[in-house]
Amino acid sequence: MPNSGELPELAATVLQPGFVGTTVPDWVRRSLAEGLGGVALFARNVESPAQVAALTAQLRAERPDVIVAIDEEAGDVTRFESRHGSSRPGNLALGAIDDPEVTGAVARDLGLDLARAGITLDYAPDTDVNCNPDNPIIGVRAFGAEADLVARHGAAWIRGLQEAGVAACAKHFPGHGDTAVDSHHDVPVIDHDLTRLAECELVPFRAAIAAGVQSIMTGHLLVPAYDPELPATLSRRILTGLLREELGFDGLIVTDGIEMQGVRRKYGLEGATVRALAAGADAICVGGDHADERTALRLRGAIVAAVRNGELSEERLRDAAARVRRLATWTLETQTTVGARAIADAAGAAAVTAGGAIVVAGSVVGQAAARRAVKVTTTAEAPDLPLTHAPHVVEFAPPRNIAIGAETPWGVAAPLTELLPGTTSVRLSADDLAGATDPAAPVLTGAGARPLVLVVRDAHRHPWVAEALARTLAVRPDTIVVEMGVPISVAGGLHLATHGATRACGRAAAEIIAGAAVPDRVEQALAA
Description:
By secondary structure, the chain is α/β, with parallel strands linked by helices. It has helices spanning 6-13, 26-33, 49-62, 91-97, 100-116, 147-163, 194-199, 203-210, 236-246, 261-279, 293-308, 314-338, 340-354, 364-373, 413-419, 430-434, 440-444, 463-475, 503-514, 519-527, and strands at residues 15-17, 38-41, 67-70, 121-122, 169-173, 215-218, 252-254, 284-286, 375-378, 392-396, 424-428, 452-456, 480-483, 494-497.
């Protein structure tokens, strides 16, 4: 049995808790001194790149090899640019371009921004195959609906990010693409046989491992073909038998948020944590909802107790802690080699001195890619582009996707207003249309004879949006429709599919509508 002080330190090493605030709380400083191996940053921790650099510098002052993780997909799910929306296109847009060199360049560009801010692990990319278009949680976060396409772009994204010194994390193993249930709320069931899983869901993870991915995130998914009782995060058959032994992955296995209902509802925070470690997970992500010292201490205590009562072997805990430390060493050495660590340290010191002034991040590489991703479909009713008059823009706001968050701006109205002064806009929800006898009436209010632009996200998944579109198009067939979700069908006189709702995607659509895009890119997008 290890000495009394060693077990708590080992237990702390495998935790990656979140916290509240844009500076490091005292309890996190204490925890780092007591062995905490990493932390997870969320949108609530980010004001600007300079502020993040200052925050990570504070963390490294307590523990130089601390893993600083962030859930930054550089698409609709963005934490690093949550206040303004991502300046890069997300995975579906990159898959639509289908040029792995572009995908790698966008990921490398992101990696440099993260590394310069002192971040060492990114819970991305999403390598799920979104073969169910009604999937409520993945959608545009996936590169596409075909396993081979997802595999080649996932591998390219991983290589690009890791070339910049940030560890990538393929998720959500063994595949969250074919589900109609959000694991934040319940346990999705992936009810396919072994052959189908091998030919679809597992293909991108094999490619990720071949590309040298440093970590893989588990999904809170029930996959009866492998384990009819336990979700993947808690299943030794899946994490150890499949991922470690069959697929040969030797890197860090990190859980999806352990507080998610997919595992917490039945097993509780402590129970899910211990079971995940016993199954083969090496790091526990927690703190999306439970970002406090009490939770971190509860989990550390539960791990220690589990070793002492035999529920979790000391050998397994030591192995998990060793893998955490190995990843920490890799990030330290890699970022030192590429020069990012020196930049992060200097940026952190400067930010502390200057007070961390807010800087809006931007990506020239990302904006160029977003333009290439737009697919434009015209009909006989299509208005001429570019528009010569300021339009009226109506943005349909679907229910919030919890993975994306409510705070991230999206849409086309803001960049169109900048490009075409006098543009007016309104955002409508299901509640706004619920009492309308004719759903087209609120949509057309304020439009008059002006060009009309309707902006939707996953119109096929929301009947109220589909009905409002149909009613409006019957009156105004010349309407421009911008689909910023998964494009399933074409509607409107002119249809623009941006393949995502990032700031870059919204601007790309607005540039095409207003004629501000570089001509060859506009022609390429129109030809696509």
